[in-house]
Every structure is written in structure tokens, then in C-alpha cells.
Design brief:
There is one protein chain. The chain is built from 14 helices and ten strands. The longest helix is centred in the C-terminal third of the chain and has 18 residues. The strands form four sheets. The protein has a three-stranded antiparallel beta sheet with strand order 1-9-4. Strands 6-5-7 form a three-stranded antiparallel beta sheet. It is globular and about 60 Å long. The chain folds into two domains: 102 residues, 3-Layer(aba) Sandwich (D-Maltodextrin-Binding Protein, domain 2); 188 residues, D-Maltodextrin-Binding Protein, domain 2 (3-Layer(aba) Sandwich), CATH 3.40.190. It is an alpha+beta fold and 325 residues long.
Amino acid sequence: MTLNDPYVASFSAEGTLLDLTDMIEKSDAIDPELYYDAPMKTSQWNGRYYTVPRDTNTLALYYNADMFREKGLDPDKPPRTWSELRETARLLTTDDVYGLGFSANQASDGVFHFLSFVFQAGGSLDDLDSPEAVEALRFWVDLVNEGLVSRDVVNQRQYEVANIFRAGGSAMAIGGPWELPRMEADADFDWRVTVLPVHDEKQTPASTLGGYHYAIPAGANEPEGAFAFLEFMSSPEMLTANWGSGRLAPRRDVETENPQWPEAYAVYRKQLESAIQRGPHPQWPEIERAIQIAMQEALTGVKSPDDALSTAAATVQPILEKTPL
């Protein structure tokens, strides 16, 4: 079976997944040292392995190089910091085009995007009402209030953000490598990808980790055979053969063979080095829900970023005190 990475801990803690630790230790095909750190951390619960990363992804910044040129901007010098991102979005915003797009919906998409900014600011899940986390949310609120990002961002899923960018409705958009095939097929302009701009002072190149994991249900009749299949699917040959759809291999020693987008893949692999996993925590859905509500309250003006994240922290902190990250 496969699981989305933030929910691995929930299934592991419930005892519904087979403990793979001993089989991984004996395996010649699956070596944790060859995998990126964040996906392998997601695979563990209480120091034991319950999954094997199938693929991985993270976020970067898509931008319309043609629009850059029209405004006198150098497309070879995309924004590298938050302040540059904001100023570039100002220059690119028109009556018909928003400078930037990202997902802030009340679902996992929005949290996936938002946490990248929290991590860059130096914030963390176990201190959601810290000045760093508040600064990240206030940055988002300011972008929306200034009209550089659509107010509809609270309803937009990741694929809708990408659709708007491809249609020319935004000049820049945050998105993942899974969008690359659609960009290639549908975008009729010079589109490019660069690493996420970082916090001006912290200069932390962080992004949120995504991806799927292989798992074997507890009580499986043929665990050895199932694990042999996981070993086969985790081989370099299969990892390079299967991911022409924009996904990244979870292993450092495996280069995804996709000559269509070599520059874009290089960007995502670089971003992956600093990607941070969501959790892992068995009550991730509850933690994620609190963050979703805080984002929505702040972006719609119901609460200030400080108050919204204080409310979220009041929900999350007792959960983490009982079961730390």
C-alpha cells in the first residue's frame, strides 16, 4: 500500500503497519543512508521503520520570464528573498495579473505551502505563536491585502494555483514538480523554476516535504514477498524508470532521468536538501486543522496573525506535550 507522508505516523502509532526495521537492516537494496534525511525521518515512529519512501517532492517558485521582460526585469535574476519577492510581485501586478499565487485553502494544500514560510522564518510546529511564525503569516496577509495575491487564495488548491499561472493570471506561483508535465503541455510562454525566496535575515533555504511511502499492513500473509516487491520498486532502475510525471526519487544517489526539464529538476533537488517533513506525529490531522483555521482567520481578517496563531498554539501545544514531535 502507499501512504501520503504526513499520515505515516498516524498509521504507525495505531499498529496497522508492519514493522520493517529488521528487514531494512538486512536488506542490500534499501539503505537508509542513501535516502534524503527528511523522507527517512517520516518513515520512522519511535525509532522503528514502518515505511520506505516511494517518491518525494517539495515546493519551488514558478515564474513567467516573458512577463519579467515586459516589466524590464531580468528573468535570469528571479527574487531570492522575501523582500525581493514582494517588490517583484508589485512590479508584475496589473489589473489582469496578480504578482504571485500560492495555496492557502483550508486543506492540506494550504498548510503545505504555509509551513515553508514558517520554517524559513525560523518558526516551528511546537511554537506556533512564536514571533517567527507570526511574521510568516503576517507576510502572507500583507501580500493579499496589498492586492499582490488574490483574496481567492483561501479557496485555491495547488492545482488551481498552477492553472491560474499557466493561463497568465499570475506572474509567479508556488508549486511542486508534479506540475512540470502540465507546464510543458499547456504553458505557451517562457516559464522557469527557481528555489523559494528566503527570509531576508534568516537566509534559511527551507521548504515543506511531500511524497508517498510504501508500507505493508500488519498481519500480512506474505510479508517477505511484499518486502521483496518494495526492494524491487526501490531500486535505482525502477526509481528512474517510473517518474516521468514530475516526482523526485527519494534517494540522493538516484538522478531522475527526465531530459525535458533538467534545470527544473536541479532546482527541486537542491530545494529537497533543506525540505522539512510535516510532523511526523500520530495526531497530524488535528495539528494541521488548527493551522488551517489560523491561516483562514488571518487572511480573511477575522483575526490578526498574532491572535490566529495563538489560538492554533493553544490547540496544538497540549497535543505535543502529550506526544512530542
